[in-house]
């Protein structure tokens, strides 16, 4: 079998066989096939696309290219959640304890963030002493004993995807539905969950900017998961404005704790309950979403979800006192209120720009080597549809020093667009697959 023939076949619109796909994935992972040939194939796939079978085979080949997490020693149906990412997305921090408190084991591998704010691991490190550097045995034991554990993604998990994505990133071949879906799902399948709930974001702060593309990606990933024997569901949610009110790291942890106390922002609470309901149904702990939601609400009102977060933090070396006393979570000392410069309604928010404000404060990473300041961030007061008067507070900025406040404040104001006419609140859940 020759790589030249595989490239030509796809260039001419042919359908690659399972053997051909596995040949190039295995060869590229081992370094036996050069970048220039694989980049040529990626461009051919970009233009000629892939069938449903080709996409599934590609995903499975990448998932099998390295280590696969064996969760068979964990009792029950293991349900994972994946978000395509966005601004203010702290969902796992509240969702995982709620779901675990209802009896569904959550065994999750997470990464660090590269962008506006930290990833789930970075945010969890706001708890002093917390570590995701735990052994596989500890990981499995924690899930069996308390129902939840989160560990860092291993370097050998789906290594073919890492190599392919780096190549696609520099050859303008990222934006292809089959390649995007297979990249995401290869890591999820390698992580070993029995069921997966996807939170696919759509809007100005999301990877997929249009609802059409977001639904298409969700459908593609659900097909891949079901084709590989997983229970699947996808929620398409709005990211045309930040999720919740907090954007940062420690400040988002505080908001997640507020939500576990039943005091979270309306949109964030709604998303957590929607995703959690799907997880409970797939995990066999509820017959339908209404029953599942009732169980989640009981876990919150009864304090069981908050207790589960405390158990989880303590089991991984963190100080659980911070769960019950979230004011201990340090926020940056320099604070500035951003005030509205006119009357009107908030008509639109450039969501990505709010994320960049967090990045400018030091709350995210521009490169893998960047050091995150977990204490900085923004706390919003007004969102789309809110009526404001000149001088009303739009947000509070938390900064390490005053040097960046001017630029951040100006950028934030430019991201807010006002309307003289009434503006409806935005719908959060766009659809469920």
Question: Quick recap of the structure?
Answer:
The chain has 433 residues and is an alpha/beta fold. It has helices spanning 3-11, 18-29, 35-48, 52-63, 91-101, 120-124, 136-146, 159-170, 177-190, 211-227, 250-260, 266-282, 289-301, 304-315, 321-324, 351-361, 405-415; strands at residues 79-83, 106-110, 148-152, 195-202, 231-238, 246-248, 334-339, 344-349, 377-380, 387-388, 393-399, 416-419, 429-432.
Description:
- This protein has 433 residues and is α/β, with parallel strands linked by helices.
- The chain has 17 helices and 13 strands.
- It has helices spanning 3-11, 18-29, 35-48, 52-63, 91-101, 120-124, 136-146, 159-170, 177-190, 211-227, 250-260, 266-282, 289-301, 304-315, 321-324, 351-361, 405-415; strands at residues 79-83, 106-110, 148-152, 195-202, 231-238, 246-248, 334-339, 344-349, 377-380, 387-388, 393-399, 416-419, 429-432.
- The strands form four sheets. It has a four-stranded mixed sheet, sandwiched between helices. Strands 6-9-11-7 form a four-stranded antiparallel sheet, with helices on both faces.
- The longest helix has 17 residues, at 211-227.
- The model has no long low-confidence stretch (mean pLDDT 94).
């Amino acid at each position: 079998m020759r790589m030249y023939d595989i490239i030509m076949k796809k260039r001419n619109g042919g359908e690659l066989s399972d053997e051909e796909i596995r040949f190039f994935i295995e060869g590229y992972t081992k370094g036996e096939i050069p970048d220039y040939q694989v980049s040529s194939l990626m461009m051919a796939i970009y233009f000629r696309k892939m069938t449903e079978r080709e996409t599934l085979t590609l995903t499975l080949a990448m998932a099998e290219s390295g280590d696969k997490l064996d969760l068979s020693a964990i009792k029950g149906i293991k349900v994972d959640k994946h978000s395509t990412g966005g601004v203010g997305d702290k969902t796992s921090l509240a969702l995982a304890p709620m779901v675990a408190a209802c009896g569904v084991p959550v065994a999750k591998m997470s990464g660090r963030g590269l962008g506006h704010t930290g990833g789930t691991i970075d945010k969890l490190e706001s708890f002093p002493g917390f570590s995701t550097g735990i052994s596989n045995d500890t990981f499995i034991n924690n899930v069996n004993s308390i129902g939840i554990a989160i560990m860092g993604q291993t370097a050998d998990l789906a290594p073919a995807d890492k190599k392919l994505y780096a190549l696609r990133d520099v050859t303008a071949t990222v934006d292809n539905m089959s390649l995007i879906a297979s990249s995401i799902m290869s890591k999820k399948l390698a992580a070993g969950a029995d069921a997966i709930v996807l939170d696919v974001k759509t809007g100005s702060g999301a990877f997929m900017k249009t609802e059409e593309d977001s639904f298409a990606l969700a459908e593609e990933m659900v097909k891949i998961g079901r084709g590989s024997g997983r229970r699947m569901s996808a929620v398409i949610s709005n990211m045309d404005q930040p999720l919740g009110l907090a954007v940062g790291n420690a400040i988002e942890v505080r908001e997640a704790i507020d939500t576990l106390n039943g005091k979270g922002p309306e949109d964030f609470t709604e998303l957590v309950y929607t995703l959690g309901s799907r997880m409970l149904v797939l995990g066999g702990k509820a017959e339908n979403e209404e029953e599942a939601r009732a169980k989640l609400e009981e876990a919150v009102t009864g304090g069981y979800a908050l207790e589960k977060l405390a158990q989880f933090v303590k089991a991984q070396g963190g100080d659980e006192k911070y769960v019950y006393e979230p004011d201990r979570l340090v926020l940056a000392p320099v604070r500035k209120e951003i005030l509205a410069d006119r009357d009107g309604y908030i008509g639109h928010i450039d969501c990505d720009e709010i994320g960049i404000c967090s990045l400018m404060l030091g709350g995210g990473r521009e490169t893998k080597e960047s050091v995150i300041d977990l204490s900085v961030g923004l706390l919003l007061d007004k969102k789309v549809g809110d009526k404001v008067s000149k001088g009303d507070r739009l947000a509070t900025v938390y900064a390490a020093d005053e040097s960046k406040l001017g630029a951040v404040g100006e950028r934030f104001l430019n991201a807010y667009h006002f309307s003289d006419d009434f503006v409806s609140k935005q719908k959060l859940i766009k659809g469920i697959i």
